[in-house]
Write a structure and sequence with these properties.
With 161 residues, this protein is mainly β. It has 1 helix and 9 strands. It has a domain of 112 residues: Leucine-rich repeat, LRR (right-handed beta-alpha superhelix) (Alpha-Beta Horseshoe). A hairpin with a 2-residue loop joins strand 2 and strand 3. One of its GO terms (cellular component) is cytoplasm. This is Leucine-rich repeat domain-containing protein. InterPro entries: Leu-rich_rpt, Leu-rich_rpt_typical-subtyp, LRR_dom_sf, LRR_domain-containing, LRR_R13L4/SHOC2-like.
Length: 161
Amino acid sequence: MNFRITLNYLQKITIGLLFLINLSCKIQAEEVEPEAYQDLTKALQNPLDVRVLILSEQKLTTLPKEIKQLQNLKLLDLGHNQLTALPKEIGQLRNLQELDLSFNSLTTLPKEVGQLENLQRLNLNSQKLTTLPKEIGQLRNLQELDLSFNSLTTLPKEVGQ
């Protein structure tokens, strides 16, 4: 069996006098689903069949616009790559529930991320982010947002409303 380990670290973001503290430290071992795709080219051959796409540690520098074809995608793992930007088409993945972008080199997020209406988990750990788009506040189903190890000084007022 393949397992994926997720570790969330103690973090503190200071915004003026407001301290946001995430005191949870947890380890999750999740079985990687057997129908998970690990090759983007193969996934795009049967786009409507793809529910889980694991592209971590593949040295990706870009994500093609064709990612929008994966309309039934629920989990997208792009962690530990070399991405510096995401295409705006990422916002068309309306069924996406979990997006892992940890350990890339993103400096910004497209505002279209706010269109991911079913997103529950967003991992932006270890990026080069200094700001977030206000549209991130539109993620009404978001339960977990990991912003560890970024250079954020403020969060959009829309976050958490």
